[in-house]
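Sample entry (404 residues):
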Amino acid sequence: MIRAYKFLMRPTVGQAAALTAMLADHCSLYNAALQERRDAYRHGSKTSIKYGGQSGQLREIRAFDPERQGRWSFSSQQATLRRLDKAFAAFFRRVRSGDTPGYPRFRGVSWFDTVEFPKDGDGCRWDSTPHDPVTRVRFQGVGHVKVNQHRAVVGRIKTVSVKREGRKWFVVLTAEQPRPEPLPATGSAVGIDLGIASFLTDSNGVHVANPRHARKVAAKLEAAQQTVSRFPRRKAKDRTHNHQRAVDKVAQLHGKVRRQRLDHAHKTALGLVREHDFIAHEDLKVRNMIQAPAPKSDPDQPGAFLPNGAAAKAGLNRSIADAGWGVFLAILNAKAESAGREVMAVDPRNTSRRCPECGYTAKENRPTQEKFHCQQCGHTAHADTVGALNVLRAGLVRRHADTA
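Predicted structure, serialized as tokens:
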């Protein structure tokens, strides 16, 4: 199995400048390759431009511009071109499926934060000084950079990536390692219902509180964003010190919320994986759930629109995004795979409207957000607990159907 490791790097001032230049030059290569594809399509070229053709031009590009492109790893530049090729492949896949296409866009310097090295030893070397007590990673054109390695890396290193987050630099490793031994069986199965009032409710009636990390720093974030808005819009290289300080403050607050959300998701998922052999959850389409409502035209006044609940939906969308359901489910599946547990997604329709006692399903069974009262048999319970119980039963039914 493949596992990722992320470590903080501590570059010198000169190394940080070289890392910044490496990102900028790879961004320039990405944008130039995108422009070439756009021009070919605009001029009706019969020969489609793909990764193979663009990768074949790298030697000429490196020879023509040795100061900007020639000093970086050839393999990392190929990885950047593959990144663009994957973006186009995803674009055409969405076109064929009828989704919103989302044509690949040009990247600004502040939008391009990752450079990948496809193979350890080709343009980079992890732990390049093994006899040094300080762990270092070497990058072509940058040198040996100190790494704060807080845990051991197990397995064979597959890829190495440089990632910039605000003013911090990280190295991300992917390692191939044998599948770990599964956790001892507990004989327990559970269904979980994700929500806003409670982040998670399981079929045993246990509620996990919603930490609402973004809401706690909303006032600080609003003030920081207002400070940024007072400065005229400029490119990153042309910003004043005060402008850059204000931008860094916004990035710092967003980074703190992201780390808190990940920490909460990891701890909650780990608790579920340790306690249960089988975990069922709703198959939520989070991206569809946070879409803004479509505008409603006023038939009596051309050009005018009727109220469509956009303000209330915007608040709900912020709460859903703050909860981070998608991140949590991805982490839960990854931890369950490592621990030998089974996770199953089920259809979420009517899970909180179906009575677990008699099976009667009706909208009226849920008179309030928290209360469930069956209109047929009179069963009462917490609505989230009912939903989690129905999710568990649906998961067990699907599990037995798959094994039959």
